[in-house]
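ok trying again, last paste got cut off:
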Amino acid sequence: MSVNTSPSNPPAAELDAVDSALFTTLLARAPFGVAYLDGGLRFRRANLTLLAMLSGSGGAGTGGNNAVVGRRLAEVLDAGAANALEAPLLTALHDGRALPEVEVPVRATAGERRARTWACSCLPVHGPDGAPAGAALIAVDVTEHRAAEEILARRAERYRSLVETTSPIVWVMTADGAVGGDAPQWRALTGQTPQEYAADGWLAAVHGDDRPRVEAAWRESVRTRTALDADCRVRIRSGGVRRFEVRAVPIWQAGEVVEWVGANTDVTARREAEEMRGRLTEQLSAAALRTSRLQQATSMLAEALTVAQVVHVITEVGQSAVGADRCAVALLDDDKLWLRLVARSPARRAGRRGAPPR
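nice, full thing came through this time. structure:
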């Protein structure tokens, strides 16, 4: 008598049930909108995030998944958004290929002053026989990102205009670098008296931490009779500090330097704009990278047909998409009492000393 102790494959019905349960859980937790549309571009399934996005845009998402099932794009979205999505969805459905991401303006609700912006991807969905079965819509609300970009552009233009319209403050020094005349405009800014300016000129207002460097550069320019190009902080009358670019050139006559003419330009606004642009660019780049990874994971989930494939996406792609150090997948039993661990990934990277992994 022999007993077959090899594990048996679960029946197809059981796999279908597990797939359905797993997909339902994943789509309910996804931080981006996901929907499945049939061959007639009618909604058959939408996750909670997309329903919330539809509700926030004045669409048909307030009544749960049943509010969109069986309805066409134009019945769920406003006409402009529906028209913008119809072409890429039809391409995915009939040609079996995905077009580049398209940004769709979605009608604003009564409490909003501007339309929402969705970044949408349309992917083909194939049935078990490989034939086109429908199309998947993946939508990410990028309204805040675009608003931040617009604010950045406006601020940059504002600061650029301010800098361009600000006249440099001109001063004159003698051939040997001594004060060559009064500079009322500079004194009005820095609060120097005529006597103070006559003693050390514009250098007297340079911030103490910057003065040794700038003064050394100025003396070297005078010695070598070459142009000065320096950057420094300047103390102003109100007690604050401004950033200035200092440029000076020698004036030649009969082969000899007869005087120096300099111009101090306030570049505080420009430097602040550059620093702000750098910080916002870093934030937007990080957000764009995260969105791209999430879209990649969602695209692979839409094409996954088995539990093993779904688990692979979660542990391999999903882990990097959300930036997790470790990833595990567990299935809830039929009685919804116990979780069974079905996959666990190794640590992606060592956690920081003293800090637990994410």
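cool. Residues 160-266 form a domain with the Beta-Lactamase fold (CATH 3.30.450.20). The longest helix spans residues 268-303.
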